[in-house]
Amino acid sequence: MFRRILVLFSVFSAVVHAQQVSVLAPETHPLLTIYKCTTCGGCQPQTRSVVLDASWRSAHRVTTNEVCLSGNTWNRIVCIDPVLCAKVCAVDSADYAGQYGITTSGNSLRLRYVTHHAEGTNVGSRVFLLESDNKYQKFSLKNREFAFDVDASQLPCGLKSSLSFTEMDADGGSSKFPDNKAGAKFGTGYCDAQCPHEVKWQNGEANLLDWFPTSVDTRAWRGKYGACCTEVNLWEANQHSAAYTAYPCIQKARCDNVIDCGDWHDRYNSFCDKDGCDYNSHRLNDKTLFGSGKAIDTTKKITVITQFITHDNTPTGNLVEIRRIYRQNGIVIQNSRVNIPGVPPHDSLTDGFCSAQKSAFGDRNYFEEMGGLSRVGRVMDDGLVLGMSILDDPERHLLWLDGTFPPDRDSSEPGVVRGTCSLTSGNPTDLEAESPNASVTFSNIRYGDIGSTYPTRSGCGC
């Protein structure tokens, strides 16, 4: 959910020639070191960088300092229609630390929740990993392993950190859509399985048609178009709860109606499985694994390892399992096992687990209808883009992750309780007032052969 700039940016903010290359102020991406690993060759550093999602940026007219977009307000004099707006308006370059609270140091990335600055206030952020200045890094994950360290100790109920992979174009869509000259360099092209309507620039156009605030929060706005694509979220978590989830889509597309977008009551007609198949240990009735002082102590840094298993243990095989391992204080911690009557004691995402969980929780198995893990695996063949974020949730207050959801369901029903947070927690207005300094730090990102990203035997790993 984009809830970014609450106060107008000054018209004198540095601008780039949106949907064009900057000539007035450079877009300087914060550097971030990641590591590529082999089983016995160790982990070798790679210099990369991160770029801010374009939907957090303001925009100005190319030829003047006239505002096109500030916060969630489109200038309707300049932006008469989506195509013209994209042609005459420029997405602004980013002051990452000063305006957005985004900083890097070596292999560490810190995202701050609220950042006050001279031109206003920014809330939350999302960044993508770049391979080069104009290209997102694509990760081929099948028969591979991905690991990272994370410190989520500063995240209260209702505020989440996220590390996810989505089916974005490597260039941000600039080759497909001629009016999008900004591309990956300025963070364009975001999509996910929720078909988000908050993505402000889509297919080289401004998403300004039917642009209005949601009924639950006037600072959360949405437009006519949604950006749908397959998503694998390896980490959605705060101090109290965590989940990893696979979301297949039958196609990557811009949706323009409530049925294809899966809006409101048409959730199960969408291009995408919006529920996904999730592994949340608390929801699966293991309340000892994750939290303050528990087996995985959320007051400390955590190493998160995810393995993508294929049927024949090759990168070209069918994806059949997404396996999770944790490491903390030098100790490897296996994922919890399901403790729900009627569900076999799985400890990873498989089609069998997803089917059994959906049945036990009384949920429609749209995951299977959208193709399940096999569909997710086919999308992985083209590579996925890595995004990291810190976000609140104006519509559902994050209860689907860390509380009781749906809130009107009996908490004794299997799958309803997802965490320890109360029904009154997670209001963004309260969070901004009470926890403005909340932050998440991702670090030591590694990828490579299975078993290569954490010590498994002498001489191997990193």
From TrEMBL:
Its Enzyme Commission number(s) read 3.2.1.-
Going by the UniProt record, its keywords in alphabetical order are: Carbohydrate metabolism, Cellulose degradation, Glycoprotein, Glycosidase, Hydrolase, Polysaccharide degradation, Signal
Which reaction is recorded as catalysed by this protein?
A: Endohydrolysis of (1->4)-beta-D-glucosidic linkages in cellulose, lichenin and cereal beta-D-glucans
Pfam families on file: Glyco_hydro_7
| CDD domains in the cross-refs | GH7_CBH_EG
Entries under InterPro entries matching the protein: ConA-like_dom_sf (IPR013320), Glyco_hydro_7 (IPR001722), Glyco_hydro_7_sf (IPR037019)
Signal peptide range: 1-18
The family note in this entry says: Belongs to the glycosyl hydrolase 7 (cellulase C) family.
- What is the name listed in the Swiss-Prot or TrEMBL entry for this protein? Glucanase
